[in-house]
Write a structure and sequence with these properties.
Number of helices: 7
Number of strands: 8
Radius of gyration: 16 Å
Helix content: 25-40%
Strand order of the largest sheet: 4-1-5-8-6-7
Shape: globular
Structural class: alpha/beta
Length: 265
């Protein structure tokens, strides 16, 4: 996610190829439909019963054909960034938006079987947006116990591995969620490494963890929230794993384990 940019059915929020992912509030909506909410989780027994998890699959399949909408600048507190971006892709053309949607839809039923109510920030992989500011608003309105934004990085091909991004402190804005977000980040990092065997990124972050204040999805969140860069899609080895459906299932299972650790901790 080099140039990272980063609602509920019952909480209807308004709705260029960059090198990776990443990019409010009163901003007008892009053309995304209301997000789907979990239809099966309510009342389901399990270790996460009563918990709400928001899954944010980065980017969207229609973004590339609507540059005027996704390039619109929005306020992310520390500056202004594009509403959304197209994301990156592997050398073979596997798009980040498709990857994040696939992993999200694998993760959702795992969490539901554990009893969580799951909300996605977009209902499919054919729409435009929503803006990063709207994605943050979805988690806030859902009163999410945890928010996970899924991405694939677009770094130099020589770099490989995954990392987790946590919100930096913006006094007066996100004070209450910085510490729990760091715990969520560590729990997801540990579970992801254990479950996938992927190493920490060797080109950014430290021990698989990074703190940033330039991502709208984190800056505007009032709930514990993190981004996970599941691997470098420009790296041949990482791309092979990320393009494999069976390995994406391992990724989703590992993420679910990390979220469960956090919510039960």
């Amino acid at each position: 996610m080099r140039a990272r940019t980063a609602l509920l059915v019952t909480l209807v929020a308004p709705a260029g190829l960059v090198a990776g992912c990443g990019g409010d509030e009163a901003a007008p909506a892009v053309r995304e439909a209301p997000v789907a909410a979990s239809p099966t989780a309510t009342g389901t027994p399990g270790p996460l019963a009563g918990k709400v998890v928001v899954i944010d699959p980065g980017h969207n399949g229609g973004n590339a054909s609507h540059p005027e909408e996704i390039n619109r600048q929005v306020d992310i507190i520390t500056g202004r960034k594009p509403c959304n971006t197209t994301g990156t892709q592997t050398a073979a053309g596997y798009q980040e938006h498709a990857f994040t949607w696939d992993v999200a839809t694998r993760l959702r039923p795992i969490l539901e079987r554990k009893g969580a109510k799951v909300v996605l920030t977009r209902p499919n992989d054919k729409g435009v947006g929503p803006c990063v500011t709207e994605r943050a608003a979805i988690g806030n309105k859902a009163k999410a116990d945890a928010v996970l934004s899924i991405h694939g990085d677009g770094a130099a091909p020589s770099g490989h591995g995954f990392h987790v991004i946590m919100p930096g402190l913006l006094k007066g804005h996100n004070d209450a969620i910085v510490k729990p977000s760091r715990r969520l980040g560590r729990d997801v990092r540990d579970a992801y490494r254990e479950g996938t065997g992927m190493p920490y990124a060797d080109y950014t972050a430290r021990d698989g963890l990074q703190t940033r204040t330039d991502l709208g999805g984190l800056n505007l969140s009032k709930r514990p929230a993190i981004f996970i860069e599941c691997g470098n899609m420009r790296n041949k080895g990482d791309a092979a794993k990320m393009s494999d459906p069976a390995f994406r299932q391992r990724m989703a299972t590992a993420m679910a384990d990390g979220i469960e650790r956090f919510l039960k901790g």
